[in-house]
Design a protein that fits this description.
The complex is a heterodimer of chains A (about 400) and B (about 90).
Chain A lengths: L2 E8 L2 E8 L6 E6 L4 E7 L7 E7 L3 E7 L13 H7 L23 E3 L5 E3 L4 E7 L7 E6 L2 E5 L7 E2 L1 H4 L15 E7 L7 E6 L2 E5 L7 E2 L20 E6 L7 E5 L3 E4 L7 E2 L12 E3 L7 E3 L17 E4 L7 E3 L17 E3 L7 E4 L5 E4 L7 E4 L5 E8 L1
Antiparallel strand pairs in A: 1-2, 1-29, 2-3, 4-5, 5-6, 7-8, 9-10, 10-11, 11-12, 13-14, 14-15, 15-16, 17-18, 18-19, 19-20, 21-22, 22-23, 23-24, 25-26, 26-27, 27-28
Chain B lengths: L1 E4 L8 E4 L7 H11 L19 E5 L2 E2 L11 H4 L5 E5 L5
Parallel strand pairs in B: 1-5
Antiparallel strand pairs in B: 1-2, 3-4, 3-5
The chains are: A mainly beta (about 400), B alpha+beta (about 90).
């Protein structure tokens, strides 16, 4: 029988929520890594009990954790489990994210644009997003702040930068968004192993067709009134992109403002915000079985990071955009001023499709009927940074 | 034997390490990181080995965060009577 595992990253630890296929009763395990910011927890599709977690702190830096038993036990990759027990401290060194400056593969350390327009050197802060490979459990991608893409091919023991992205000639024009200059979205094309998409705030969307060696900005059609040239090649604050595995040439985007879609692998984009009450927001997700059914959570504006009218509404389009319906059943419809962050919405692959999202108020909401109705699995976690759903 | 007190975020733990030669911030942290490689990057930056901005070092009650990493630490620390304390700057987060 199908089981569902929800991986939740919060400001003060990780939580794992599990249920059977009915998705009515949930057990809650956590906090794991209590006190640390857990930006993302994500499992391998090919080996679902292998889960990576990004544990981070402005004080003590970055740590990568890995579980090989579905989240029951964790270690830093490279640690010797026996030594860990005996000594009380992991022995691994999996937190080394160093920009590639080697002559062979790297680029010289470049600079990017700072808030005030001056140039600023790249400085590693944290891993925002972990994206396990679709076919190899030892390979995982890490999107980091300051924006760059790293990859491990040894299960997280060592990480190497795919420096062609940061070395792109547009790098000096990239600038931090309110959350820092982060590479927050990594999308792997299930039909084309060598194609990778990523999104950076605030630079835009990039595509590689050679497994991450070289990159092309794909932002044609985006219009951002908050940058000097609204249709510039880079500088757009893309918040999230999503695809459906059956139709990977179609991409959906929640931009800072605007919902966008592309039907040519990102070569061009058009706006599909339609009748949304606000087209500002962070996450965007695609239904597991309906490639044209998409979900967003409208937020009032970039300075007012809460839903319009104090009503928490997920909006669903069954036509790939333009026409949207509010989903409200089970969600607070008054006095609600939480935000839903970019990595905090996910879908399972059960039937009917389950949708999950977490809020900055610590609620994790679930729908087991494609969004028609919602229920809080848990209400009082620390602010939720990320949500992933595993169907096992 | 040098006693090193770690921030509780990393591990609620006091560890004892041996340091060969002169006892300085650098030799203590080198020995600590050699013994516990997972601490690399958490107290000092990778490669540059500079103290992370929100970490401070205390030795025998004195703030030595801004001392040269090669300055000899107090004899009380070298003798193991007092710990070398690694502290997260301010309490919160």
């Amino acid at each position: 029988m199908t089981a569902i595992r929800i991986l939740v990253g919060t400001r003060k630890g990780a939580f794992i929520l599990t249920s059977d296929g009915k998705r009515k009763k949930w057990s809650i395990n956590g906090p794991l890594f209590a006190g640390w910011e857990i930006y993302h927890v994500n499992g391998s599709i090919v080996q679902p009990d292998r889960i990576f977690a990004s544990q981070t702190s402005s004080w003590f830096g970055q740590i990568i954790q890995r579980s090989d038993d579905g989240g029951k036990t964790w270690s830093q990759p490279g640690s010797d489990g026996a030594a860990e027990k005996a000594e009380g401290m992991p022995q691994g060194e999996s937190n080394m994210f160093v920009y590639d400056t080697s002559e062979a593969t790297g680029k010289p350390l470049t600079t990017h644009q700072w808030y005030d327009g001056t140039q600023h050197p790249w400085e590693f802060a944290r891993v925002w997003h972990l994206e396990p490979s679709l076919d190899d459990p030892d390979t995982c991608y890490a999107g980091v702040e300051d924006a760059a893409l790293f990859r491990t091919t040894d299960g997280g023991v060592t990480w190497h930068e795919l420096a062609g992205l940061r070395g792109h000639e547009s790098g000096p024009d990239w600038a931090p968004g309110a959350g820092g200059m982060c590479l927050h979205t990594v999308v792997l094309d299930p039909a084309n192993k060598s194609r990778i998409y990523c999104a950076i705030s605030a630079a835009g969307t990039f595509r590689s067709d050679d497994s991450g060696e070289t990159w092309t900005p794909i932002n044609h059609g985006l219009r951002s009134e908050y940058i000097p040239d609204p249709t510039a090649e880079v500088g757009h604050c893309v918040h999230r992109i999503a695809i459906h595995p059956s139709n990977p040439n179609t991409l959906f985007m929640q931009k800072h403002w605007d919902i966008m879609r592309s039907d040519d692998g990102g070569d061009s984009w058009r706006e599909v915000s339609g009748n949304l009450p606000s087209d500002f927001g962070f996450p965007i997700a695609v239904h597991a079985h309906e490639p044209e059914t998409i979900y967003v959570v409208p937020i009032l504006s970039d300075s007012l990071h809460y839903p319009p009218d104090g009503k928490l509404r997920v909006y669903r389009s069954r036509s790939g955009g333009e026409e949207w319906e509010a989903l409200t059943k089970g969600l607070p419809q008054e006095h609600c001023y939480v935000n839903v962050l970019r990595d905090a919405m996910a879908v399972d692959t059960a039937d009917p499709c389950g949708i999950y999202f977490g809020t900055t108020g610590g609620q994790v909401y679930a729908s087991s009927d494609s969004g028609d109705s919602w229920e809080a699995i848990v209400r009082d976690l620390p602010a939720v940074l990320s949500v992933e759903a595993q169907t096992i | 034997m040098i006693r090193v007190v770690l921030p509780h975020h990393l591990q609620t733990l006091e560890v004892a390490i041996d340091v060969d030669g002169v006892v300085t911030q650098r030799t203590v942290l080198d020995a600590l990181e050699a013994r516990y490689p997972m601490l690399r990057g958490t107290v000092r930056e990778h490669l540059t080995l500079k103290r992370r901005p929100r970490v401070r070092f205390f030795a025998d009650g004195e703030d030595v965060s801004h001392e040269s990493p090669d300055t000899e630490l107090p004899a009380t620390v070298a003798a193991g009577d007092q710990p070398f304390m690694i502290v997260g700057a301010i309490a919160g987060g």
